[in-house]
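Folding Task

Wanted — backbone structure
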Amino acid sequence: MKANKHNLRISGSRIKIDGENAENGVYFVNQETNERVKVSSKIPVNKPSELMVVIPALAAGAYKLEIATQFSGTSKKPLKEPRSTLFDKVLNIL
């Protein structure tokens, strides 16, 4: 993950946001309160191995990044239910 002003570039595997479920998206999860702050629905880069998102206004605290998607990676049809991944690295907002 690399932050560049207000943008965040995320690299990985099978991370494309796909599917109709409202839970799909990119979240910042506050590690103290477990509050999930969803990134706006506009994702300028949405590829299987790369996402580019605009970082939302966040209160001070420690956050982890979570991605929820129905992208299967192997077929054109999305998964029936979203799968979610919580990244290990912590982002500290002062």
Remarks:
- Residues 2-93 form a domain with the Coagulation Factor XIII; Chain A, domain 1 fold (CATH 2.70.50.70).
